């Protein structure tokens, strides 16, 4: 699940979008949670170009994400990111 919010940033042009990840113990043990965060960071890095600089994102991992293949995670994240950004407009 992706949540997005507009935030105020300095007007000096150095602003970049920020991303936070929430991976609870419901997703799995520490190894599984860490792997899930790594996959999410990898996938979201490729999508940051489409995110305005004045937006903060929170990506929350649900338990089924832990065993999902990376291409499926990528497609789900793209879809949810698009939905979250369209709600901001």
TrEMBL record:
Signal peptide: none annotated. Its EC number is 3.1.26.5. Keywords: Endonuclease, Hydrolase, Nuclease, RNA-binding, tRNA processing. GO terms for cellular component: ribonuclease P complex. It is an enzyme of class 3 (hydrolase). Coiled coil: none annotated. Gene3D superfamilies: 3.30.230.10. InterPro entries: Ribosomal_Su5_D2-typ_SF (IPR020568), Ribsml_uS5_D2-typ_fold_subgr (IPR014721), RNase_P (IPR000100). It holds the Pfam family Ribonuclease_P. One of its GO terms (molecular function) is ribonuclease P activity. PANTHER family: RIBONUCLEASE P PROTEIN COMPONENT. This is Ribonuclease P protein component. It comes from Allobranchiibius huperziae.
């Amino acid at each position: 699940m992706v949540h997005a919010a507009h935030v105020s940033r300095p007007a000096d042009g150095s602003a970049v979008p920020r991303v936070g990840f929430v991976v609870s113990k419901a997703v799995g043990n520490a190894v599984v949670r860490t792997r899930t965060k790594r996959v999410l960071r990898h996938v979201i890095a490729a999508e940051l170009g489409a995110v305005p600089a004045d937006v903060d994102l929170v990506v929350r991992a649900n338990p089924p994400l832990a065993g999902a293949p990376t291409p499926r995670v990528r497609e789900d994240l793209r879809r949810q990111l698009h939905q979250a950004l369209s709600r901001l407009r």
